[in-house]
Amino acid sequence: MTENSLERTGASLLIKALQQNGINNIYGLVGIPVTDFARLAELRGMKYYGFRREDSAIDAAAAAGYLTQKPGVGLTVSAPGFLNGLTALAQATKNCFPLIMISGSSERHIIDLSQGDYEGLDQYNVAKPFCKKAYRVDRAEDIGLAVARAIRTAVSGRPGGVYLDLPADTISQEAPTADTGIYKLVDPAPKQEPSDEAVSRAVDIIKNAQKPLIILGKGAAYARTEDQVQKLVNETGIPFLPMSMAKGVVPDDNKYSAASARSLSLKNADVVILIGARLNWMLSYGDAPQFNPDAKFIQLDIDATQFDSSQKISAPLQGDLQSILAKLIPAIIKSGYHTSEEWLDQIAQDTAKNDAKFAERIAAGKTNPKFGYYGAIEPIAEYFKEHPDTYIVSEGANTLDIGRNMVGMQLPRHRLDTGTWGVMGVGMGYAIATAIETGKHVVALDGDSALGFDGMEMETICRYKLPITVVVINNGGIYNGVGQVVSNQLGPTTLDPTGRYDLIAKAFGGDNYFVSNYQEMKDTFAKAVESGRPNLINVQIDPSMGKESGHIGNLNPALNLKPLEEAERSNHND
């Protein structure tokens, strides 16, 4: 193949189309039929980051999309590799992260006749239920158009995942010219303003609110609304409650934060303003008793199908969040509205009471002979107070829940976690992309169970020498390491409580630390992060620490096992 013919291949056109649209990073795992495509991408100036599992690579691409507002690009091989990436594709779509997952695939004529191709699978049709849109490119000359459609689909409206099916023949096929169909998109995510009538409707409801509450979702963080939302909060005094990935849109230490008075705020608010948040399972669908049954909801969202999904929305405001807020905030300020001092005092008193209780837990955690989550995470929280421009990625059950409450965020988009779907195994992929896309220090805070999904990506972290500190809270179990009842079997939630996860880092040239009390963690953590080197801290806590399913134990059906367990224990003693 001559250099001129190489320029006309589907592979070259795909690279040109991505670069033309400002996409220069690829997260993936190579093999048949995409290995030379990745090599060519590097030769043409793109950055390729190779992973050990496809799901981690696609998770990384999704996180890149969230952080940059441009679709992250993930690459997989065919069939099994494609299937490994499918969970991450679905996760990105549920989380509203813009992503393009590109997979090599078998030739369509072989698949359609079921002739038994190597790793043959009808990937195009399999992917459709798990993403916003799937596209297959059968002709090299259509690559530019396919990339344009994929980008626009991923970032416009409610962002999400797109699947791009790339048959092996298309990769090497030659188009008529070296620039066939390649172009840069014009305004891929057009602004959308709400009507004046919709804004007036919302303002009228807010003007009559006695106990208003703003709920911030990660959509508010993705849309870069922090300046607008901070103005809204500070000038009206409307208290706000951030969802986990919206922490930092308004600094957590802002005086109008209702985070420590969550239950009281939700139960008593008479007007709830949803900004980039959805009334899904994470907000109990807006139902009583968690919410005031008489509350009126105002929802700001790009997607009208989200309105009335579980509650009546009295004032729907459709559009991109910046455009909505650009019209809504001046109208609220012009109305002269300010939240009543009585409501603010209620929240402040509840906040003070709950903060005092929380402070007691943290203080006890520093000295508790049974070393647990509070003592392990407090040094991280202390570090983030002093170094707010550090990123945190977190997953697990108790590790995620307690860490979210303890580690304050002062800047937007500095916290990533399992999000809407609650999928474990995203931590390493998200952390890697965050380090690459931001160039900042990243802390990956994982439970020992969560790390099991993607722990081999520690090799990826070390190979690229990324400034990532992985903290594994090791209590030897899923939820906790206590639970063996049947004498000749380990309990279903049992893992190795003495496992030395830190040695994974050592195996690949990273730094490793082992700590088992608060002072050791305090002495170690800042040093590990500021080294700028890949490292892993294994935090050994007591196996009894941790409750079933963390904060969402209600979702794990409980069976009455007590009689059987007592009988089993009785048999042990006979």
UniProtKB/TrEMBL annotation:
Stored SUPFAM superfamilies: DHS-like NAD/FAD-binding domain, Thiamin diphosphate-binding fold (THDP-binding)
Family according to the record: Belongs to the TPP enzyme family.
Residue span(s) of domain Thiamine pyrophosphate enzyme central: 199-328
Limits of the Thiamine pyrophosphate enzyme N-terminal TPP-binding domain: 9-123
Top-level taxon of the source organism: Bacteria
InterPro entries cross-referenced by the UniProt entry: DHS-like_NAD/FAD-binding_dom, HACL1-like, Oxalyl-CoA_decarboxylase, THDP-binding, Thiamin_PyroP_enz_cen_dom, Thiamin_PyroP_enz_TPP-bd_dom, TPP_enzyme_TPP-bd
Record gene name: oxc
This protein's name: Oxalyl-CoA decarboxylase
Single Gene Ontology MF annotation: oxalyl-CoA decarboxylase activity
Cofactor(s) essential for the protein: thiamine diphosphate
Alphabetized PANTHER family for the sequence: 2-HYDROXYACYL-COA LYASE, 2-HYDROXYACYL-COA LYASE 1
NCBIfam families, A to Z: oxalate_oxc (TIGR03254), PRK09259.1 (NF006721)
Keywords tagged on the record: Lyase, Magnesium, Metal-binding, Thiamine pyrophosphate
EC top class named in words: lyase
EC number: 4.1.1.8
Domain Thiamine pyrophosphate enzyme TPP-binding: residue ranges: 405-539
Cross-referenced Gene3D superfamilies: 3.40.50.970, TPP-binding domain (3.40.50.1220)
Pfam families, per the entry: TPP_enzyme_C (PF02775), TPP_enzyme_M (PF00205), TPP_enzyme_N (PF02776)
